[in-house]
Design a protein that fits this description.
Length: 471
């Protein structure tokens, strides 16, 4: 749309034809006048229906409305989880500790049982909300925690967020910073909120992230040395699958090590770039140096351009699960191979990995649906073969939205062993520890129909099919 020549939006073809939207826009307009000290009593009440609607104004109003709705959604999530903690009966069933003769089979005290019930109720409610809104339960809990943190510690900033005056990125950055302030440092909360509320409304996300670190640093009552020691205990490295056979690696490490690592990558990349026949970009060189240093353990080998990844014959022994159609392996088909914990990868990489495999297991799949039909059981112990079958059929935890690889999960009895459930493929499935405890400790139920399709029923009666495999 050419904003220089078309400054009005046709009323019949826009959101302005919606009376509810017009009213919401009008109220936002009046609130903005009030914030700027402009009296709105004398403004014509028909203004919202007769004013020329500039498309820029429309875009700004929509952005503000979306921001407000996002924060209000976070608050609604927080309210549901808080209610679940206060009244867990709907999510975990009747409280057995109310019976004076009841004793926990595992020996827990009544107080410990009640605390566990509250925890399971919150987990169960988050899983239910996530299933209904196509989010994971962790995302629901994260958004609820963000709202709770800001409402409690940063009331000025939170009011502006609910009003739509702060971008979602700045809301998240402010919540993260406020959450790291001590739980009993209300003076620090006040100092942080006083400065951050204004900055969050004025600055773009990149600038605000820089500014909020300084605001938090000045408001924090503890020394930098104490904070660094505590933060260093949470150091971690994570791998996030990306598109087209790539992965993103993030490391949460002390800044000094990060800076030294960056300098080593840069120095080695500059050295390689100076070679006569080097054609790779600086970014590609940094990535190749990073991989070679990590995979080869810091050997003196100079990384070179290669079309296929190099895998050392010695050093570290690892196990990688790769599902590859036999026709693809033989070069007679184009169906993608699946790398466990990631997803589809290109055929050349799959064949390179397959060439170094020391052991193979035949898996028969339906050529149309991709469903695992059978698996060769050459291992002596039956549980090991069953696990291999189940992890091939279900690459991830079966709970709604969970992406925990099945190789890291428990193998759960859908119908409990104590209730007569069989140790058979039709009654088994991978569940991560978090969701295993929710299934066993709440009314969440996993169902299986006559054709083997799995589904879930939440304590509120919400039903949904189990997530399909990624291949």
């Amino acid at each position: 749309m050419d904003l220089s020549t078309n400054t009005e939006v046709a009323f019949e073809d826009s959101l302005w034809a919606d009376p509810e939207y017009v009213e919401a826009y009008w109220q936002t307009f009046l609130a903005d006048l009030e914030r700027r000290g402009i009296p709105g009593e004398d403004v014509d009440g028909e203004f919202a229906e007769t004013m020329p609607f500039d498309p820029i104004e429309q875009a700004v109003a929509l952005a503000r409305q979306a921001r407000s709705l996002s924060s209000r959604t976070d608050a609604a999530f927080a309210a549901v989880l808080a209610d679940a903690a206060r009244s867990p009966e709907q999510w975990v069933g009747p409280d057995p500790t109310l019976d004076p003769l009841w004793r926990d089979p595992s020996g827990l005290s009544n107080a410990a049982v009640r605390a566990r019930r509250r925890d399971l109720a919150v987990r169960s409610a988050a899983l239910d909300l996530g299933a209904r809104t196509q989010l994971s339960d962790l995302q629901v809990r994260s958004r609820a925690h963000k709202a709770k943190t800001l409402e409690e510690r940063c009331p000025r900033l939170w009011r502006a967020a609910v009003d739509g005056a702060i971008s979602e990125q700045n809301v998240a950055a402010a919540a993260h910073a406020a959450d790291t302030l001590p739980a009993d440092a209300r003076d620090a909360w006040e100092r942080f909120d006083e400065v951050a509320a204004d900055a969050a409304q004025r600055l773009a996300p990149g600038r605000f992230r820089q500014r909020v670190r300084t605001i938090r640093d000045r408001a924090h009552p503890e020394s930098r040395e104490e904070r660094h020691a505590r933060a260093a205990a949470d150091r971690d490295v994570r791998f996030h699958g990306d598109d087209d056979g790539m992965v993103c690696v993030t490391a949460f490490i002390p800044a000094s090590f990060g800076r030294l690592a960056e300098e080593r990558l840069d120095a080695t990349a500059r050295h390689l770039a100076s070679q006569t026949d080097e054609t790779r970009t600086t970014a590609q060189l940094r990535a190749d140096v990073f991989c070679d240093l990590l995979v080869h353990g810091g050997s003196d080998q100079v990384p070179t351009e290669r079309d296929e990844p190099a895998f050392p014959a010695a050093t570290v022994t690892t196990t990688v699960h790769l599902t590859i159609p036999v026709l693809t392996l033989l070069g007679a088909g184009d169906a993608p191979a699946t790398l466990d914990g990631y997803g589809p990868i290109d055929q050349d990489t799959a064949r390179t990995l397959a060439a170094g495999a020391s052991e193979w297991y035949r898996v028969l799949t339906d050529p149309v649906r991709g469903t695992v039909l059978d698996v060769e059981r050459r291992a002596y112990r039956v549980p090991r073969a069953l696990r291999r079958w189940l992890t091939a059929r279900h690459p991830y935890c079966l709970a709604p939205g969970c992406t925990r690889p099945s190789r890291l999960c428990d193998i759960d009895h859908r119908i409990r062993w104590a209730d007569g459930g069989a140790t058979a493929a039709s009654n088994l499935g991978p569940l991560c520890e978090r969701h295993h405890s929710v299934k066993d400790g709440t009314p969440w139920a996993m169902n299986r129909d006559d054709e083997g399709r799995l589904s879930w029923t939440s304590p509120t009666g919400f039903e949904l099919d189990a997530d399909p495999p990624p291949f």
